[in-house]
Amino acid sequence: KAETVLAELGERWKPKGATAIVMDPRDGGLLAVANWPQVNANEPGDAPDYARQNRAIGATYEPGSTFKAFTVAGALEDRKVTPDTMFHLDPQIVVADRTIGEAHPRGPITASTAEILKQSSNVGAIKIGQKLGTKRFDHWVRRFGFGLPTGIDLAGEERGIVPRLEDYSGSSIGNLPMGQGLAVTPMQMAVAYAAIANGGILRPPHVVERVGGRAAKKPKGHRILSDANAASLRRMLEGVFGPGGTASGAKIDGYELSGKTGTANKPENGEYSETKYFSSFVGFAPAR
User: Fold this and answer.
1) Around Cβ 101, how many Cβ atoms within 10 Å?
2) Mean pLDDT score of the chain, rounded to an integer?
3) Rounded alpha-carbon distances, angstroms, from residue 203 to 77, 150, 194, 197
4) Cis peptide leading into residue 219 (ω within 30°)
5) pTM score, two decimals?
6) From CA 61, how far away is CA 154, in angstroms rounded?
7) For residue 250, what is the DSSP state?
8) Distance between CA atoms of 165 and 10, rounded to whole angstroms?
């Protein structure tokens, strides 16, 4: 089914490639891992090079705004913000030598932490990142498992590219909190969002359910968020589907959903492309 959906997406939007992951957040069990374009196993040479790898675990990308949930998670856990903390947000923010604006022009506003996540404000995410500070922000990036293999029982997993704290520049706290300047795998993102969905436990994903008719030993997880803060994040991510949210068009009748959209410019020859993007979505249901 996942491959069918990706084939329809490929036919309609003509992307270079697409990946889908479906996971049970309660135990990390993978229900589907699919990539497009599909490879004909009888004629693998007919497929482009990038299609001949499992990009769900073997390809890295800059996540963009889907990463803002982890910036907010760290700030909640460190008690730097609450969902109702208010921020004055100018149309742009200057961080070191960079001026960073929103995806769409707007005037000055005042918005809460929850509204920043709902509207996917770049300026707001940066302000929350600044409240955390570089050391604690780096702590939370690694706490969610970025820069490390997830431990999945499949071959060819990449660990992503996360800058070391000592390699941060003055503008790093301007781009990292909104998911640019670091690279992750789709599987890492699925695992990290599963921790928000399941109440704060980060669990390795797995494919193998049974061996020789006996249940395989499932890898243990560890707590990275309090149950209360995971619940706060779930409620805030519900707002993404409401009026003014970035995923209002992805609503499904009969389901309460939580999730986050992301769009990141592709790096190309040392600069960010103005025409090529990674577009992504991570979500879960039911939201509560």
Assistant:
1) 13
2) 94
3) 19, 8, 8, 12
4) no
5) 0.95
6) 19
7) G
8) 38
